[in-house]
Write a structure and sequence with these properties.
Layout: E1 3-5, H1 7-14, H2 18-25, H3 29-36, H4 45-55, H5 59-62, E2 63-65
Antiparallel strand pairs: 1-2
């Protein structure tokens, strides 16, 4: 898939666990884990906004496009 999710990288840079981020963005651990592992097929802008707010980053820090 040409869209790469770098959520794990941003979480490591911010030294935040999946549990902490889940609580901050009000998302279940399973849904956040699916997103973190790159298995998600879509993401709501409101979810992306909440994650960016919690991690103090931009959407481009989390999502990356690499052509096949």
């Amino acid at each position: 898939m040409p869209i790469i999710v770098n959520l794990d990288v941003m979480m490591a840079k911010r030294k935040i666990s999946l549990n902490e981020l889940s609580a901050k963005v009000d998302l279940t651990l399973s849904n956040l884990s699916i997103l973190k592992t790159g298995k998600a097929k879509a993401i709501r802008f409101s979810t992306l906004e909440a994650i960016c707010n919690a991690l103090d980053c931009q959407p481009g820090d989390i999502l990356e496009y690499k052509p096949d």
